[in-house]
Design brief:
This is Active regulator of SIRT1. Belongs to the AROS family. It comes from Pipistrellus kuhlii. Keywords: Nucleus, Ribonucleoprotein, Ribosomal protein. The chain is mainly alpha-helical. It has a domain at 44-90. It contains six helices and no strands. The protein is elongated and about 115 Å long.
């Protein structure tokens, strides 16, 4: 950061009162003059804007306060009733809907029937 930008920043953030007001007006006039004399399309950065950009404010506390204040206002009894009504509505929760496993079916043919078929079909 150049010394001029640093001085300008210190003037803008200086002590409150007449000197600060004069310094702000002087800095504003100087900046307006520089804007006119700047290269096309290039705007010089303000020291105050740079300071505010670098200053990182933590919003964690504000966000936590908002989140905790926006809690649900529904009574606990209503919540329990909704949960009770929705329990068991799926097909897999119904007692009669469960499919029974079929046990492996045995064959109706005996080993002798297979031997007979093999002799008739293959001719051996």
């Amino acid at each position: 950061m150049s010394a001029a930008l640093l001085r300008r920043g210190l003037e803008l953030l200086g002590a409150p009162g007449k000197q600060a007001a004069k310094a702000k007006a002087k800095a504003k006039a100087a900046q307006a003059g520089k804007l006119r004399n700047s290269a096309k399309g290039k705007v010089p950065k303000s020291a105050l804007a740079e300071f505010q950009k670098r200053e990182q404010r933590g919003y964690l506390g504000v966000n936590l306060a908002f989140m905790t204040s926006a809690r649900s206002t529904v009574p606990e009894s209503v919540t329990r009733q909704i949960l009770r009504q929705n329990r068991g509505r799926k097909a897999c929760d119904r007692p009669g809907a469960k499919k029974k496993k079929k046990k492996a079916e045995g064959t109706v043919f005996t080993e002798e029937d297979f031997q007979k078929f093999q002799q008739e079909y293959f001719g051996s």
